[in-house]
Write a structure and sequence with these properties.
The structure holds three protein chains of three kinds. By secondary structure, chain A is mostly beta strands. Helices cover 10% and strands 36% of the residues of chain A. The chains are: A mainly beta, B alpha+beta, C alpha/beta. At the B-C interface, strand 6, helix 3, helix 11, helix 12 and strand 32 of B face helix 1, helix 3, helix 5, helix 7 and helix 9 of C.
Chain lengths: 88, 998, 418
Amino acid sequence: MLHIKCPYCGTRSQNEFAYGGDATIKRPELNKEVSDKEWDTFVYFRKSPRGKHLEFWHHISGCRQWFKVQRDTTTHEIFKTLKPNEDI
Amino acid sequence: MPQDYRLDKIGLINRNKKISFKFNGKSYFGYEGDTLASALIANGVHLVGRSFKYHRPRGFFGAGVDEPYAIVQLYRNNETDPNVRATEQELFEGLEAKSVNCWPSVNFDIGAINNFLNKFFPAGFYYKTFMWPKSFWYKVYEPFIRKAAGFGVASIKHDKERYEHKYEYCDLLITGSGPSGLASAYAAAKNGARVILAEDKPRFGGSLLTSEVNIGNQSGKEWAENIVNELKEMPNVIVRNRAQVFGYYDHNMLVMSERINDHLPKSKKYSPKQRLWYIRAKEVVISSGSIERPLVFGNNDTPGVVLSSAAKEYLKVYGVLVGRNPLIFTNNDSGYETAIEFKKNGIWPIILDTRNNPNSEIVDEAKRMGIDIKFSYVVVAAKGYKKVKSAEIAKISEDKKELGAIENINCDCICVSGFWTPTIHLASQSGNKTKFNEEIDAFVPGKSKQEETTVGSANGIFTLEETLKTSFEAGHQLSKKITKNDNKVSIPKVVEKKLTKHDKFWCVPLPKGKKYKRFLDFQNDVAVTDVELALREGYRSIEHVKRYTTLGMATDQGKTSNLNGLQLVSDVENKIVPSVGHTTFRPPYTPVTIGAIVGREVGKHSKPTRKSPIHSWHEKHNAVFVDAGVWLRPRYYKQGSEGLFEASKREAENVRKNVGVCDVTTLGKIDVKGPDAAEFLNRVYTNAWLKLPIGKARYGVMLREDGIVMDDGTTTRISGNHYHMTTTTAQAANVLSHLEYYLQVIWPELNVNVVSTTEQWSGAAIAGPKSRNVLQKLFPNIDVSNEGLPFMGYVEGDLFGVHARIFRISFSGELAYEVNVESNNGNYMWEKIIEIGKEFSIQPYGTEALSTLRIEMGHVAGSELDGRTIPYDNGLQGLLSKKKDFIGKRSLSRQAFVAEDRQKVVGVVPLDKKTSIPEGSHLVKEEKAKLPNPKLGHVSASCWSVEYNNPFSLAILHDGKNMIGQKLFALSPLKNKSIPVEIVSSHYVDPKGERVRS
Amino acid sequence: MQKYSVFSLIKNALKGHKDWEVAWRNPTPKAEYDVIIIGGGGHGLATAYYLAKEHNITNVAIVEKGWIGGGNVGRNTTILRSNYMHDQNGLFYEKGMDLWKSMSQDLNFNVMYSPRGIINLAHSDAQMNAYSRRGNSMRLNGIDAVLLGREEVQKIVPMLDFSENVRFPIFGALMQPSGGTARHDAVAWGYARQADSMGVDIIQHCEVTGFDVVNGKIKGIKTSKGDIKAKKVGLCVAGSTSVLAEMLNMTLPIETHLLQACVSEPIKPILDHVVTFGAGHFYCSQSDKGEMVMGGDLDGYNSYAQRGNLPTLQHVLTEGIAMFPFLSKLKMLRTWGGIMDMSMDGSPIIDKTHIEGLYLNCGWCYGGFKATPVSGWTFAHTIAQDRVHELNAGYNLNRFSTGHLIDEKGLGTKTWIS
């Protein structure tokens, strides 16, 4: 069971959190013309790296905040957790 | 009756308490403190089971978790447990056990015929045969093999025991209470760390219980007792016996199973049988010790061949002799310890040492004691079928390849010692890459991956002095890191015998002309020839060897076989062992009871049950409930002999004719608040929200980014910046997370907050032409006329003293209202509605009637919004704003989504107006077309239309918009039904929606 | 090649099993092949076999980073079925079922194909209806399916929880009688042995480190055993797809996730079918060895770790006991994990790519084992003919642009929610 540091609450066990997927994909801005390819890439295409992965977690049984976690997908080592507006 | 193999003056058992038990129907007795294994051996019982494949006789090989043989069916308190290791099961009064995998009895087992045919059953033989004729595998061979396989018998009775979970945090978790564990625990505890010390056996002390050493002028055993007693008294220390740390997971989470009542005739009241501990440790000290390795020789699986350390343990802990005429076969000093113990207790052992007269303290002592030692000698084969009767022995050449003349020697047991294998499972599970230590011919932990330190013999350290020194140091350093204290305890002086190097020899060559089976894996009957065959056939990776031969895949998980298997592969392949590599160590270290892993979430509690505050009223009024996710909702209210159909029809008819009331508490409710709430809703929903006036509700549909409908519901503007959103029961949690994601991550600039209020409000839908009458009486001071409270209007009011929200919304298609009150008042509200509605013939209605009402109105719900449909498919294209962007909008322009012949919701009526169409039927053009019969759509929901008194269904149909009026067949091959149908509009009743506005 | 049979077994037994030949060679790679298949798992081995058998292309190499059959073909719960609702899925997997039926004879290797029947339990009328939709679709596609009522289920699998103390009572089930199990390792070995005998080079412990692509055309691969030229390259690496795709600057609609499975200690036969739980995600069968083979949810976050965490297993086993209360007294013996190429609509991709001569086979989610033969069969066709077969036409990569998705479960792109 992972031990995840919520940037708002501190370190908690994984069962308080829900996973939220790749945090590197950027949603195209509203009302902006985007090509089919750009849109499909946003909706479906993922890098799914082996190694460092920036991902969302949601503190669903806690403060209910979404935040970013940088984690190694082979060892599950967590390097950093960030608020949504922060970048690595 | 005296026990033939029990000594009088030695052992840690309680001789004042006799315990009677039964094995295979025969009564025996043992003493408190015995295991089933020690008690059976004391009684001279050595035959306990049969092996997996060849059904060869099986006795006892070890004295603990490493035991590959002694697996029994246990009977305790009118329940039965399969596959219990006799070496771990403590004796209790009335214990009953039986041998497994043998028929008719362990003494005479028909399956043993396999043994005589064993040459036809080498590794992987089943891959090469049983293929003809084709169907025979499944029909003939496989059932036969299945019957022969498996050990114990599972009881299909529900388990009456309780299992609990406990979550614990500590500074140091120490896994094992041998010398290294005790030293680490003591040093850390004295330095102020919070320590958990776990010991899987009933007794603490590990090897100190059986070794002849002296620590600080006490015997090892006394030292261990004193340390444990002191630790138990310390407030910062948790000490647990019968507790196996079996898994090392990520981020230093370890899991331990504690057997609390397994050693008692029945579980104590209010006490769990086992407790599972999830332990988050800052540091882990792995002090799991080591397991003796077997030496491999002919018929080395015969009952009476035991590990020398086990023989010593039976002797010193239980006062039990594994034999009166022991042969000790060793390649290292450890065998001598066992021999000396025998000798001290009046038994004359013979030692065969593969080494050539090594210079060793303990060898000298054995010589001094007059023990017969044969150097450069090996056991070639054990003789005897159900018990060792003698052994063939021979001198072995310096290069260990040539055997001398075979001699026969009488013995009744052979105690083998092939040196020690560190128990590195936990370290390996932590992610630690193990390394091979040439000195000890075994793997030891490498660099730490998580916060773990391995000490003592688990780390390949086999002298007590070094073990204590490094373990005290580890305990001190690790605790210092955490507590910042620096209190050192002094390391006691150790007296022990110096060890001499072991001999790397592990497998005795076959004498010419003999084909003895030499076993590596005792439970799965994997012999040297099997591994050789696998390698010959090209299964050369160690994983291939394991899978092809099943080496190490038995219930003991190869604790005694893995390393010898590796040695063999490295010998044959001419590779060094580390380049062969070992197979992966995975949790659990020992098998763990599934009930313990699951804990209390069983039976009714396997998932939570959510009930509305009105639930007990429903119960009292004969509601039949249905699971809606984890909620329970009334499906219908049974009157007299009604079934589902009659009751739901009555309820729906009453809504259409008079008025009904439905508990809608389970609907998801979310408060959306803030100055940007309207803008937010405008982005979340597909339709326009900026101009919704205060006191008005609006229906909305929200999409996923891929354009698929996620959920629908009404949202009401309560005040300027306050909106009340409703969701479907099923999607409530997802929608909240979805909203939070967009607010916190995508549009943080929006000043909006969302919070679930599902639990805060209880709701009742009042529907039907007479609903206004009911409402008027409920709220006499409110103008509920069509003008005062129009369709999609909202007011607040006082319902006999409680605050209420009143929404004029409708799911049934009738004139309808929804009243919400604080949950505490839900039942009060409900009773008032029922009471007041009486004069208008109000009846409660359940989800089935609700379903009927929405289907014939053509309102889509979960069965249409199934995660695969877009708004158009559901006839909701009118709700797609062209003027603004919203979540998922961009996806809607994709080729498949704008196709001219896109699927769309339609109504379906059987031509005979009688035959109900089963939900899940498919619509096809031709009734009896060749398969695959092209499907045009499927029936998503069916009801008996109470309006027209005939069946009506909704369907999602290919090219739906052009299909109205077409005649098709609704096929349900599963129900053997083919129904000619006509496609009609999905809005079967009141297509203009006049009633809701009336 | 030596033929395996009861006679050859007896003959060899009498000679002390000294004369058995290697099941496959251990060749050094040639400089060039007509086709290189990357990935010595079930699908890769099957592809090579069908390239040789159906298309007469034998100058083929399989390049495997570790040992063959070490990926998901050796880490699954061995379930075979074609109980799908979507036509594309149903017809594809049903072809697979045909291939399973005669696989032991085709490969001369007993893969222990055992059509013991797969039973999907339903716990509400709504679920019965959803299963009806699926089962009717199967029947109209020529796939066997029957709907069972509660009593019928009880007759077949009496040790399910039919007691009062149950959270989600059983309403009935959808059953595919021809569904079942096969011995997973044997499938890999059987394909390997036959492919090898037809000339395919199986190159183990050979890691792909790069690709040689010139002007949008594949020319070969770079490996830890040197560069190897190839006219065509098929990518067949399941959970490692994204890692290799990155070397090709490709991003795919795939995420790699971990799925765990576990077995109990072996017990005497108690369960003759494959049974899945309807009020959650749990499936169970009993192996010929007697072990209860169990699986369920993904660990739920991107992972290449092949090792999982206990809470997921706890959750899976909770549903296990809810379904089979007798499991409570059994002991969990062994657990393992495999990394799954989870596609964004839950269906696989077998297609050509924008690089000429490069073919893609991935996206099997946690259902790849049953597809082994038909995946190899269609992929071999796609590679050999340079065009998709009608059976895998729907599994194109383009569907993520056109919207012709094949979402059997309707869960969308959150691949980690199962």
